[in-house]
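Both lines are given unchanged directly below:

***
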Amino acid sequence: MALCARRLVLAATLAAVVALLPCTSSAPVARATETGDFTAAQRTNTLAVLQAFARAIPELGRKWTGDDFCSWEYTECNRTGVFVSGIGATYAGTLPEMPVGVDYTTVMIKLLDFSEVGLGLSGTLPASWSRLQGVASLTLSGCGVSGTLPASWRLLTQLTELRIERCRLFTGTLPPEWSSMSALWYLDLRNMKLSGTLPPQWSSMTSLRTLSLRDLSDISGTLPPEWKSMKSIVYLYVTKSRVSGSLPVEWREMATVREFSFRESSLSGPLPPQWSSIKTLRRVYLANTRITGTLPSSWKDLTGVDHLHLEDTKLSGTLPPEWISMSSLAQLFLSSSLVEGTLPPQWSSMKKLQLLLLANTLLSGTLPAEWSALQSLVTLQLSGSKVSGTLPAGWSGMSQAAMLQLENCDLSGSLPPEWSAMPRLRLVTLRGNHFCGCVPDSWAQKAALVVDIEDKHTGNNCIAGADCATTTTTTTKPPTTTTTKPPTTTTTKPPTTTTTTTTTTTTKPPTTTTTTTTTTTTKPPTTTTTKPPTTTTTTTTTTTTKPPTTTTTKPPTTTTTTTTTTTTKPPTTTTTKPPTTTTTTTTQPPTAPPTTTTEAPSEPTTTASPTATPAPAPETECEVDGCEVCEGDSAARCARCAADYFLTSEKTCLVYCDGGVAAVSSGVAAAAAVCMAVLLSVGLAA
C-alpha cells in the first residue's frame, strides 16, 4: 500500500510540474514524452546505464528493447529526468555494475525504485553505483541482496532519499563516510543484520530530516551526543536494538525534532529534564527500555507533546500534577512501570487526553471524581493497580469513554447505574475487586456493552437482598470473648455455625449478622466474659426469611464461646451454596472490540522528483496490534495488517479464533459466541 501511495504521489508530482511550467519566467518546456526531448549525450549515456540493468535482470531485458527508453515499461520521463519504478517480483536478477566509458554527468536517471522486486534481486550492492551522482532517490525493499553498505556511496552527493529495508542478508556496519551525503534528507535502514555503533560523524548530515534505524538488533553502543548538530532532524528512530547508555542531555539543542523512538532497547538512566526546552517535540516512544528515575515535572513545558509512551520501564515516583500544562497530551502510557502515589485530580484539565494506560503499577488512592471532565478520554487502564474506593457515579459524563479496565484492583461498593449513560461505552472490566450487589439493569439493557465481572454479580446468580450500600452490621471488628474458667455444660448437640456466601462483596468482613432470635432464658450461667450479656439459653429458634445480603471476600470470623447452657433443641441454621464463578455477561457482543493505538510509523510517502518539496511527515508510530502500516498520521487506524489478520472497518486488525473473531487479548473476557479482546500494546512501532 505504501508503494502504491508513492506511485500515486509520483504521478501527481509529474502532473503538477507540467501544470506549473507555464507559470515560470523561462520559456515553457513540454513534458518529455519521448527520448528525443533529451540531448544526444543524455540519450546515449542514460541508455547505456539502463541497458546494464536490462542485462542483469533478464525478464527486464526482454521488455526494454530499442533506444526510446521513455516508452519502456516501468520508466517515466519528464524535463528533470528518468524515473524507474514498479518492476515486479517476477523480475529475478542482480544489481549490475555501472559500465565504464559513460559520462555520468549526463545520465538522466533520477529515481530507482526496486521495492516491488523483493527476493528476486540477489548479489551485492555495487560500489560502482557511486558514479550515479545524479540519482536523487534509491529504494530496495525485501530483497535478497547481501554484502555491506558501500562506503563509496558517499559520492552520491545529490541523493536525497535512501531506503533499504527488510534486506536481511545485509551485514557490516553503518558507514561513517556517508556523512558526506550532504543532500540526504531521508535515510531508512531497517530490519537488517547490520552491527557496530551509531556513527558520531553523521552529525554533519545537516540536511537529514528523517533517520529511521528500526529493527537493527545487532546495533550497539550509545546515542551519540554529537548528533545534536543535526540541525534539520525531525524524526529519529532507533528501535529494537542493543543501544545502551542514557538519553543525551545535549540533544536539547535539536531545535526541529518532533519524534524520538527508542523502544525495545537497552537504554537506561533518567528522562532528561533539560529536554523540556525542545519546543518542537511532539512524540516520545521509550516503551520496553530500562529508563529509570522519575517523571520530570519540568516536562510540563512540553505543551506540544501528544504521545508519551513510557510503558514497561523502571520509571518510579508519582504522577506530576504539574503535567496539566501538557495541553496537547492525547496518549500517556505508563503501564508496567513503578510509578506510585495517587491519581492527580488536577489532570481533569487535560482536555485532549484520549488513552491513559496505567495498568500494573503501584498507584493507589481513589478514582478522582474530577476526572468526569475528561471529555476526550476513550480508554482508561488501571488493571492490577492498588486503586481503592468506589466507582464515581459522576464519570457517567465521560462522553467519549469506550473502555474502562479496572480489574484486579481494590475497588468496592456498588456498581453505579449512572454509567449506562456513557454513549460510547463498550467494555468495562471489573473482575477481581470487592464489589457488592448486582450489575444494574441499566447496564444489562445497554446495547453492545460487555461487562467482565464475576457471575455472582449477574442475572439469576445474583441473590436479591438489601442494597449493599445500606448493609447493617453490629460491629466492625469481631468481639473478643474471654472465658476465665470453662463452666460445666450439658448440651444435647453442639450448635452449628454456618457461613453463607452470597453475591455481594465488602472490603472488611462483617462479623455479625442481624437476625430475628427468640430466646427463653431459665437461668443465667456462671461465666466471666469481657463484655456482657451472659445468658443461658434453653430454647433458641432462629428464623431467616432471606439469606443475608452482606457477605465478605473471606468467610466471616466466628467466635465460639463456651457457656453453661442446657439446650433442648439445637439452633436451626440454613446454609446457602456459593454461586459458581464463570465468565463475562454481555447483552449484545459488539461486532468488533474497542481499539487502542500503539506505535509503528510506516515510511513516509515521498515524491520521486529531486526538485520536489520535502515529503510529508512519516506516519505515526502504530499502536494497533497486528498492524504493519498505520494510516496517515493516526496511530489508531491501520492501513495494512500483518499475515493472519484482517482489516476491520474501524481500521483495526483482528484474527479469527475458535468461536469467533479476536484481536490480541489484554485479559478481557468476552461473550460466549465471540472471542473478544482489546488491542493494546501499544505497541505501535517505529
